[in-house]
Write a structure and sequence with these properties.
four-stranded mixed β-sheet; single chain; alpha+beta; about 60% helix; 4 helices; about 170 residues
Length: about 170
């Protein structure tokens, strides 16, 4: 849940916009299990961008009082990159460690830091995000497979009904 302080046009974000660690000019998307939902996350980011707050009041590591739009845009870009990679990884039956490695490399590249220089608390947050994103994609694929099976059963049932009616 986020709250807009209308007079100041500042948005208290909760965990809706990812994390910004001190010394990082890059948001780290928060995609924890079991509740992460990519579509909802992107809708939330889009709504916040539409509000166009003058600043973001994050629950960790202080406010973003300038460059809020850029921070939000970078978050959308990161989630888009991460989502594409996770879909490929899950479909290819790659491990969560593989996804974590991609996420941590992405964070390092976008923060201008070496992977080995990323603090342990950042690595733990990114690992949790990898687990959450993989879980989300696995559920989506399972739901799509279930839907495809239902359609196949329906088509087969209709074909059988047509054959029976002709006989």
């Amino acid at each position: 849940m986020s709250v807009l302080l209308e007079h100041e046009h500042l948005l208290i974000t909760g965990d809706a916009v990812g994390l910004r660690y001190p010394g990082f000019d890059f948001p780290i998307p928060t995609t924890p299990p079991p509740s992460f939902d990519e579509e909802q996350y992107m809708r939330t980011l889009t709504k916040i961008m539409d509000i166009n707050p003058s600043g973001l009041l994050l629950p960790h590591f202080g406010p973003i009082l300038s460059g809020a739009e850029g921070f939000l845009r970078k978050n959308v870009e990161a989630v888009t990159r991460w989502g594409s990679k996770v879909c490929d990884a899950v479909k290819g039956q790659q491990s969560i460690d593989h996804v974590f490695k991609y996420f941590i490399t992405d964070v390092a590249e976008h923060t201008g830091k070496l992977e080995g220089d990323l603090p342990d608390h950042v690595r733990r947050t990114v690992k949790l995000s990898a687990i959450g994103y993989c879980s989300y994609v696995e559920k989506r694929i399972a739901n799509q497979s279930s839907l495809a099976e239902k359609w196949a059963d329906l088509i087969l049932h209709r074909q059988r009904a047509e054959i029976s009616s002709r006989a």
